[in-house]
Amino acid sequence: MNELPDTYRKLLDAARASVAQAFLTSPGNTAYGAAALTVEGNIFRSGQYSSFNHITNVHAEQAALLLATMAGQPDVVALAIATTAPATQYARPCGICRQVMAEHAQRTGRDFDVLMAAHHGQSCEIKRVSELLPHAWRAAGASEPVLSPAIDADQSPLQSSPIRWPLRTGDQLLLRDGSLAVVWDPLFDEELALVRVILCRTGDRWHGVPDPYLTPIAYQGQLADRGRWMTARCGARGAFVSLRDVAAVTAAQPLRVAKREHWQPLLDALLDADIGEDQVTISQTHGPAGVHAAAYCLIVVRADEPTVRWVEAALQQQFQVATELSAVSRSAAEKHGLQKALPGGIDRAHRLGRFIHLYAWPTETVELIFTPTRCGEPCLGEGWKVIGHTSIYGTVTEASNASFVRGRFQVLTAEGPFEVVTYHPLARLIRRGDCVSLSGTLVTNRGRYCLLQMHLSPDRTVWWQTATDGVLPKPDR
Ligand SMILES: [Zn+2]
Description:
By secondary structure, the protein is of the alpha+beta class. Helix content is 20%, strand content 32%.
């Protein structure tokens, strides 16, 4: 349960806290608490209302759903349950509550998560309503339930893997509102990933979203209509999702899996330029459940500027030989749109080593995106300034938050204390008392210094000594 998002942790806490609100007929009876999280981000909680005749009981789950609905927020995305009952390992909803949940899910169209808290400890078990009651009773004549797309790892039409974090550039996301998106920059903001929405669902119909590069204004308009055009804390605007919004993830394919015949000139050019498999992610857009948008492929390549030039030249040669492949030239209007869409315009994007090319075959379009192998400029909040890429050496003085997705810890160096913010998976091993050297981008704000580690390379952590004061478990011998 380490991967549980903060929102779900808060929801579990709320459910546990509301156990104390249970209105019991006799003190010492088993108490239940429930908390409903709505799509608006609010939590409605309740304990159970017990009655002496046992027939007019109102269970905590039902009460929480009622409170949310009566507050005008029936779209519940998750419901957590906790109990004092010692008999079961996890709090289980009764059959009547399962029926209430199933009907609620049918009416809102959202097959929401049910978090069943462990009696001891902070963990829980999560099942969707449709898993808790697969063959729910339905009123005669009621239509087939229209639920959000399946998010089960085994059954998803996207062959998705379960939610995982961190997301990687190129990962395809099935969002909880049914939209399909590709991760654009997972390092953009705390708890948020910048995504590009590709397909949207309205009722049971799918439609493609305009291309953000070719028709940025139309793209922004559609995002705004769906409430996805928003401002991140660092000031940038776009489509952001939290892990809560992600129903399923389809990992991008590595280069060697991509064996599409007509991509071969492009893939050959990448291989000839010595671009390794680990530097390339490939994802192809295909709608869930039989929806087939125009086939569209996104290839994200980490490469330095000389390599990009080399690949460009190699592809130019291919155009002259292979008549099928063509570079899509941008119209003046498209260029104008790009100029407005990218902060600082196209020139700045090129200066930062970011390039976008479109290649078209008769049946398919490939978007080739080069991202620099060196760290790009981080997106910073107001008042922060970049000093440059550097290394620090010192002793870790505080590491209680080092194990989160965006880890933070403190290092005392000869030059003074540094705060380190890191996305590096290895940061989970950092403990107070460790002696380390760290490389990353140094930023400052009014005398405060912070080292950002955003990439696996070149932002590295090297241990010189690990804490031996009992903070780290001693290795077995
Ligand atoms: Zn119940």
